[in-house]
Amino acid sequence: MNSARSCQYIQEGNGTPMKKITLLLPLLLVLSMLNGCHSGGSSNTQSTVRLVNGVSNSSLNMFWSGNTSASAITATPVAYGQASKGVAISNGVSNIALASSGGTPAGGTPFSFSGSYSYTMLSYQTYPFGPSTPSLQIAQLIDNQIVPGTGNGLIGVADYSGAGILDVYIELVSSGKDNTNSYPWAAGISGKTTYSTVPVSTLPSAAYQIWVTGASNPSDVRLYIPSVTIGNQQILTLVLTPTTGGGLVDGLVILQQGQTPLAGQQTVTSYKNGSVRVRVAGNFAANGVISSATTTANGSTNLLSTNLTSPSVGSYVVVPLSGGNQANPNPQATGVAAATLPLTITVNGVATGVTATATPGADLTLLAYGTTPRYTLLTDDNTLPSSGYAKLRLVNGVNSIGAGTISLTYGSISVPKSQNVALGTASAATSLLIPGGTPNSIGVSGGPAFAPIQPVLLSQGVYSLFMLGDTTAASGVISSDHSYQGP
Q1: pLDDT reading at 219 higher than 70
Q2: Which end of the chain is more exposed for a tag (fewer CB within 10 A), N or C?
């Protein structure tokens, strides 16, 4: 595919935890300018701005100025997966603030606006303090991509997911191909924006499938979109946003301002992830085997590729909760963001009693332990830490420990969030500074004897120390849960 000349100007930053009524936006700005920009009309005194809402289950208004006397520049609240009409505002630096429907903005973030450009302000959520504490973000995109020639469309991808390095595959639905026999359309996507032309082989439109995967791993599907319609000379942008677990991603396909939707096509189409990732951590007594053939989620998804012998930890498996299969897990219905979906797990063909309402996009661990098997479903926080840090948590699956608890040390210093961890539970993840030279030792106290270990922790890596085995022969398993480089 030939790359189209493009320009994307982005401002974004980190927010504060979302409040129920008013959403605060003290954001850290990041400016990014790609090559290929055509000159703007500096003589114009106004710009056109719209809001695209990527915040699930929330309607938002956008305000210009950001103080309590600000006037809303969206006429009505914008629902999830929708775009407001474009509104003219003065050029220069202006504060932009968001508030939930009926709320009043507090604070604001300065963004630059220049004449003759149309802008999309994108709202979305990140989870820097864990899955239960979302933080509101806003980013600025310029709608200035050059219209492709007849017989072509232009598709871009803008990654705000924070899920690490990703690849994107695009194939015509009619081709019969999938991502396993294709080359990446865009490789090494991480916080980047890129555009390329694709052929509209059957005028006036063509249908494409899209896979977002872990880098260099087409079987590691983070989002699958079964069909996106692109019309002749249309310009679409696939925006990737975070999920609560940190590994899977959500998507929004946005039509550039100034273009007319085809019949049945929406200006914004949401592709909320309809899956979770689940893995099994086994600590059955006497090196018990967990069968790959009969350990399933929702009756049909095998959670293991091979048998798992205790004590050990398996890999994450995508469990499609709303249709599709593991290779092509369908997203939720467009425009819908279901808060929870059912999840039932069996181990060795026997029901575990775990029947949860899982949050789509979550990463989960089924901890199986004890002579008479007991099961706990743990919620994992695989959102990536800052550069120079690694995230670590402690999981207590030690058989025969009873009511005893265990605690974690790092470099001989107690880790505050990982103290007195009870059997069958996990601590919260803590970001730890990675030292230069020799790695810091990791120790566990309060349970069976455990010799400190010195694993190499990567920058922006997420790890769990699973304490398994029993009180006479403890086994510490360091699991690399997620990292910037993957998986």
Answers
A1: yes
A2: N
The DSSP call for residue 179 is G
> Residue 413 in 3-state DSSP?
strand
Does pLDDT of 384 surpass 70? yes
d(CA 197, CA 1): 6
Please, what sign has the CA dihedral across residues 201, 205, 207, 213?
Answer: positive
Average pLDDT, the chain: 87
Mean pLDDT, range 54-69, rounded to an integer: 80
Please give the Cα distance from 413 to 428 (Å, whole number).
17
Residue 91 CA to residue 46 CA, distance in Å, equals 5
Q: Among 97-111, 113-127, 155-169, where is mean pLDDT lowest?
A: 97-111
Query: In the CATH scheme, what architecture does the domain 384-487 have?
Result: Sandwich (2.60)
Q: Which residues contact residue 15 at a Cβ distance below 8 angstroms, ignoring those fewer than 6 apart?
A: 24, 25, 26, 27, 126, 135, 136, 137, 138
Which backbone phi and psi does 108 adopt, to 5 degrees?
170, 170
- From residue 6, alpha-carbon distances to 237, 255, 355, 433 in Å are 12, 15, 48, 38
166-215 pLDDT, tens per residue? Answer: 999 999 999 988 888 788 999 999 999 999 999 998 889 999 999 999 99
Query: Listing from the earlier edge strand, what are the strands of the sheet with 71-72?
Result: 71-72, 60-64, 92-100, 109-113
d(CA 194, CA 210): 15
Is residue 442 within 8 A of residue 465, CB to CB? The reply is yes
Q: Over the stretch 242-296, which tens digit does the pLDDT of each residue have?
A: 999 999 999 999 999 999 999 999 999 999 999 999 999 999 877 799 999 999 9
Whether 47 contacts 88, CB under 8 Å: yes
Structure tokens, 71: 């006037």
User: 79: exposed, middle or buried (C-beta count within 10 Å: 0-12, 13-18, 19+)?
Assistant: middle
List the CATH code of the domain at 150-271: 2.60.40
d(C-alpha 23, C-alpha 28), whole Å: 16
- Alpha carbon distance 378, 381 (integer Å): 10
At which residue do the structure tokens 């207590």 appear?
396
Where in the chain are the domains?
A: 1-144, 150-271, 273-382, 384-487
